[in-house]
Amino acid sequence: GQNIDQPTEMTATEGAIVQINCTYQTSGFNGLFWYQQHAGEAPTFLSYNVLDGLEEKGRFSSFLSRSKGYSYLLLKELQMKDSASYLCAVLDSNYQLIWGAGTKLIIKP
Amino acid sequence: IAGITQAPTSQILAAGRRMTLRCTQDMRHNAMYWYRQDLGLGLRLIHYSNTAGTTGKGEVPDGYSVSRANTDDFPLTLASAVPSQTSVYFCASSEGTSGDNEQFFGPGTRLTVL
């Protein structure tokens, strides 16, 4: 079966750094996405990784290790507006997206 | 520029009734998708379309149908709603059809079937 695992919930402090992990077991791999979803809103795209390594985009970075079936999203200089759910999704061998249940990130002042 | 819109925003529906959720995009994207999102579960693909005139089944297609008469519109129909179809429904679109493009999501429709 196909499986995407993420922590259900994480808490961090404003101004700090947080790392949200995602592990996957899928039939094939054609890339990994991270999306942000604020409560009651639609998901919005954050990043796409298809090769191993770290990709940085402002305060957000995403890392991929294909051999380990592992990715993380790193958020720096946390702001209250970063309180949201973060969704990990893997593009499988059929080019279908398999979504994790998401990690709810709570930022405390 | 609206991007991608959905209607209605929310709906309460009696079991057994027919319901069509509307989705329209103005980005001229080729691919469109319908997902449902349930608490504790990831987004699950219901149906998709890679271009006008073609549709395909996703992970959970039973009880749902779609059509793609033109590029912009991708309605989702529940022929006879059941309580297990209570969910938040998201329509999405992407420029490419290979799946490795960013998907743009509509605001969602919250559907309750009683």
Description:
The complex is a heterodimer of chains A (109) and B (114). Chain A has 109 residues and is mostly beta strands. Helices cover 0% and strands 57% of the residues of chain A. In chain A, the strands form two sheets. In chain A, strands 2, 4, 5, 9, 10 and 11 form a six-stranded mixed sheet that branches. Chain B has 114 residues and is mostly beta strands. Helices cover 0% and strands 48% of the residues of chain B. Chain B starts with a strand and ends with a strand. The mean pLDDT of chain B is 95.
Quick description:
Chain A is an all-beta fold and 109 residues long. Chain A has strands at 3-5, 9-13, 18-25, 32-37, 44-49, 53-57, 60-65, 70-75, 84-91, 97-99, 103-108.
Determine the mean pLDDT of chain B: 95
Low-confidence stretches of chain B: none
Number of helices of chain A: 0
Task: Count the beta strands of chain B.
Answer: 11
What's the order of the H and E elements of chain B? EEEEEEEEEEE
Report the sheet-strand fraction of chain A: over 45%
Would you tell me the overall average pLDDT of chain A?
A: 96
Global morphology of chain A: globular
Key terms:
heterodimer; A: mainly beta; 6-stranded mixed sheet; 5-stranded antiparallel sheet; 0% helix; B: 114 residues; mainly beta; 7-stranded mixed sheet; 48% strand; globular
